[in-house]
Design brief:
This protein has 13 helices and 5 strands. The chain is an alpha+beta fold.
Length: 289
C-alpha cells in the first residue's frame, strides 16, 4: 500500500505558501472588503497557474499527483525560492526517490582526521535529521560537550530546543532555531517515513510550542553558509561565519566549520577558547572505526 504522507505534506505546503501571499504581490487587485481567508484563495492560485480550481483543490487535499510542469508553474505563482521549489519537487517525488530505509551513518576515518587537525577551527559533522556524528574539541568548547549527550539524543535541533544554555549562547536564538526547523523540514521531504525523524518532530512539538508553530509554517532551507553571533560564557561575543561542505562518500553527511577573519576580535577569542578547551581536556568525537 502506497503512503499518502508526501502528498498530504505537499498539500499543506501549498496552503501555507498561498496563505502568506497578498493579492497585490501577484498582480491581483485588492478590495477594502475583508477576505475570508488569509492570503490568496484557491481559485486565484488556479487562475494564475492556468489550471482548474478543481485540479488545484485536489492537489491541496493530497488526492492526486502533480506533474513537473504544473509544479514549476506553481513555484513561480507562489513566489517560492530555490530551497522551497526543491522541497516542492521532492514532496511530489519528481527529483528523488527512496526505495529503502537509510542505513546507519558513520564518519569515514579520513573525515575524522580532518576534524582532528582543525585545532583552531570549531567543526562538526551532521548527518540526517541534524544528528551530530562527529566533532572536534573546539566545537565542544564552543557549543556544548557533545560526549555527555547520549548518542540517540545527539541531534542539533534537539539540543537547540532542549538545552537551556543554547538560548543564551545564541545572540539571536529564535532565528537560528527557525533555520534548524526549516532544514529539518527539508530532511522530511527526502525521508518522509523516517521513524527517528517522525519521533524527533513529535517530541519537540510536544515539548516546545515555538517548534510546533514553526514546523507548521512549512518553511524550508538547505545547509549552506551564514553568520551567527554567540555570547560565549568563557570568551564573550563571537561573530562567526559558518560554511557547510558535503561528503562525497555520503551526501547526507555535512561538515560545518565556524571561522573568523584573521586579526578580528573573534579570531583572537577563538585562539583563547582553543587554549581553554585544551586545559579542560574537552573530548572530540571518538576515532572512526
Amino acid at each position: 500500500m502506497t503512503s499518502n504522507v508526501p502528498l498530504n505534506e505537499l498539500g499543506e505546503f501549498l496552503k501555507k505558501r498561498r496563505s502568506e501571499l497578498r493579492p497585490r504581490t501577484v498582480g491581483l487587485p485588492e478590495s477594502d472588503r475583508p477576505r475570508r481567508v488569509a492570503g490568496l484563495r484557491r481559485e486565484e492560485v488556479a487562475q494564475l497557474a492556468n489550471i482548474s480550481t478543481d485540479y488545484y483543490t485536489r492537489l491541496e487535499q493530497g488526492r492526486m499527483q502533480a506533474s513537473a510542469p504544473v509544479l514549476d508553474v506553481l513555484a513561480r505563482v507562489l513566489h517560492l525560492d530555490d530551497d522551497e521549489r526543491g522541497y516542492l519537487f521532492q514532496l511530489a517525488g519528481k527529483t528523488t526517490t527512496r526505495t529503502r530505509r537509510p542505513s546507519r551513518q558513520k564518519v569515514q576515518p579520513q573525515l575524522q582526521r580532518v576534524l582532528d587537525d582543525l585545532t583552531a577551527t570549531p567543526a562538526v559533522v551532521q548527518g540526517r535529521r541534524g544528528d551530530i556524528l562527529a566533532w572536534n574539541a573546539l566545537a565542544a568548547a564552543l557549543v556544548t560537550d557533545f560526549s555527555r549527550i547520549p548518542e540517540k539524543q545527539r541531534n542539533y535541533p534537539r539540543i537547540q530546543f532542549t538545552e537551556p544554555a543554547m538560548r543564551t549562547l545564541y545572540a539571536d536564538w529564535e532565528t537560528s532555531a527557525q533555520i534548524s526547523v526549516a532544514q529539518l523540514r527539508m530532511e522530511a521531504a527526502k525521508y518522509p517515513e523516517d521513524p527517528r525523524l517522525i519521533e524527533l518532530v513529535g517530541e519537540l512539538s510536544l515539548r516546545d510550542k515555538q517548534f510546533a508553530r514553526w514546523w507548521g509554517e512549512h518553511h524550508v532551507a538547505s545547509r549552506t553558509v551564514g553568520t551567527k553571533t554567540l555570547n560565549h560564557p568563557v570568551v564573550g561575543e563571537l561573530v562567526l561565519d559558518w560554511d557547510t561542505l558535503t561528503a562525497n562518500t555520503d551526501p547526507d553527511q555535512h561538515l560545518t566549520v565556524w571561522t573568523a577573519a584573521p586579526g578580528s576580535p573573534t579570531h583572537e577569542r577563538l585562539r583563547i577558547l582553543a587554549s581553554w578547551a585544551a586545559d579542560q581536556h574537552l573530548p572530540a568525537s571518538p576515532p572512526a572505526t
